[in-house]
Design goal:
heterodimer, A: 385 residues, alpha+beta, Gyrase A, domain 2, Elongation Factor Tu (Ef-tu), domain 3, six-stranded mixed sheet, B: 125 residues, 9 strands
Chain lengths: 385, 125
């Protein structure tokens, strides 16, 4: 999780002082000095998010806007870089996608939102990973057609409020936001402060991401922490929560060598794009969809209590067949879990494999994602475009 | 006070006659965070000072635990398998890892006593 390749001073989010005051343990992450845990520790923070509401500072992530003359133009510009159907994304809706390399590898993953207001027609909102944002912005900006521009929103903070009580808490301060559907988003106010809220997250729980002008970040943070259901949650629990939810972490489970098909992210490539292509790496994606990929991301449930970590080899009958890309202890299951890549023939749920940990071949069974049931709140059945 | 010595890698050794009780310091557990698994050596194994004697896994990562002294493993803490959180609750008490039959008491001379270790930890924060 560290970022040792740079000696630059660590960046700070607008909430850095708030984290320190809460007794957070701050660690370097993607060039930022970020809270890995607060005083209660990762297990307690994880459990709190699954039962109450956890508040995360994710202001290190990159927020940006694509600006163009109309939706069709801006959507086409972005579709030239990602495999999701953005043209048919409805106003006020959000979609997960990947920034693609020409060979079908993944340069980063991102969230794309189409604003709902008619006056914002032609604008798309992007959220990219902290570690990749400079490279992502350069990549995108260099490939935009005339008339479409990228605008960085570096003066905005981003908070995630996640957990079964998140909606009830948010309803006291931003009722319009709390009424959103899963993967819907829009501008609203939080106690009078202009914010942009989406009903999404990275924990498998119902929850929200709240984009705030950085000058108001501390106010919103303190207001939410003042609610009895809310505790601050660090990046340590964010990682264990997303692992239980079966969600990919860029740079680990997906990277420039993995394709979205291998990564079991085909659901994020809508039918029109699968058929038409027109994005970097489309030839590989279409070939893998027809012939099957060489390897596929699977979930693994280990026997015993010893966790298997990233990099551990996966074996079948004594032969190495793959590698763990994320692994750790699942607090909700009180058991170790992992994800990694194996040949499709070994990806069938119920297949028993071994993960090699310090010379021991630990039995591990292939299971379907997610490890812990997701509890997203879908108010209407959205049809994929 | 019982005779407890510490290493710069944050292991402790408590001497009880010719038996050395080994674990990680309270400072070490506070830095690791929640311990979810401890891999212990088998009884009868001989470990050398400075060699890997155990592995402690927090939610985040695995860390090696090095033997602060040489000796033969005569007992391992049977409670850690079901309740590894004992390392967080009482690292230098019921969260002990292994007991060694001390092979070379002179090795203790190179380790820090409690006061020296406390001063060493001060320099880390």
């Amino acid at each position: 999780m560290s970022h040792p390749e740079t000696d630059l001073p660590l960046l700070k989010t607008p909430l850095h002082g708030a984290h320190a005051a809460l007794g957070a343990r701050l660690v370097p992450f993607a060039g930022y000095d970020m809270p890995v845990q607060y005083r209660d520790g990762i297990l307690a923070e994880h459990a709190w998010t699954r039962t109450h509401a956890g508040l995360f500072d994710v202001s290190h992530m990159g927020q940006a806007k694509l600006l163009g003359p109309d939706h069709a133009t801006t959507a086409a510009a972005l579709e030239a870089l990602i495999p999701a159907d953005i043209l048919n994304l409805k106003p006020g809706r959000q979609r997960y996608s990947q920034l693609m390399a020409d060979d079908g590898g993944i340069l980063d993953d991102l969230m794309v939102t189409r604003p709902g207001a008619p006056e914002e027609d032609g604008t798309l909102l992007l959220v990219v990973n902290a570690a990749g944002k400079e490279a992502d912005y350069a990549h995108i900006a260099a490939r935009l057609p005339a008339g479409v521009t990228l605008e960085r929103l570096d003066d905005r903070a981003l908070l995630a409020l996640q957990g079964p009580q998140a909606a009830a808490v948010l309803a006291r301060h931003a009722p319009e936001g709390a009424a959103l559907d899963f993967m819907a988003a829009g501008p609203t106010t939080f106690d009078g402060i202009p914010v942009h809220i989406s009903r999404s997250g990275y924990t498998g729980e119902d929850g929200f991401e709240i984009s705030i002008p950085e000058s108001a970040a501390v106010t919103v943070w303190n207001t939410l922490l003042g609610e009895p259901e809310v505790n601050p949650i660090g990046l340590g629990a964010r990682d264990s929560l997303r692992l239980e939810a079966g969600l990919c972490l860029y740079g680990h489970d997906i990277d420039p060598t993995t394709s979205p098909v291998e990564a079991a992210l085909v659901w994020s490539i809508q039918k029109r794009r699968r058929e038409e292509g027109g994005f970097p790496g489309a030839a590989r994606i279409q070939r893998e969809l027809t012939e099957g990929p060489a390897r596929v991301r699977v979930g693994l449930r280990l026997e015993g209590r010893a966790p298997a970590r990233e990099g551990a080899e996966i074996a079948k009958d004594g032969s190495v067949v793959g590698k763990v890309t994320s692994g750790g202890f699942a607090p909700t299951l009180n058991a170790p879990i992992a994800m990694g890549y194996v040949p499709p023939a070994l990806a069938v749920p119920g297949t028993v494999l071994n993960i090699l940990v310090r010379g021991k071949a630990l039995p591990a069974t292939v299971v379907t994602f997610p490890f812990v049931a997701q509890r997203y709140v879908r108010k209407s059945e959205q049809k994929g475009a | 006070m019982s005779d407890v010595r510490y290493t710069k890698d944050h292991e402790y050794v408590r001497i009880d006659g010719d038996i050395a009780v080994i674990g990680i310091s309270d400072y070490a557990q506070s830095q690791l965070g929640d311990v979810v698994f401890v891999e212990l050596p088998e009884v009868g194994k001989t470990v050398k000072q400075g060699a890997e004697a155990a592995v402690v896994e927090s939610v985040k990562a695995a860390s090696e635990v090095y033997a602060p002294v040489s000796g033969e493993v005569v007992e391992i803490n049977p409670d850690l398998e079901a309740a590894p959180g004992a390392v967080n609750e009482d690292a230098e008490g019921k969260g002990w890892f292994v007991k060694l039959k001390l092979a070379n008491p002179a090795e203790l001379d190179g380790l820090m006593d409690a006061a020296a270790y406390a001063a060493f930890v001060e320099t880390l924060s």
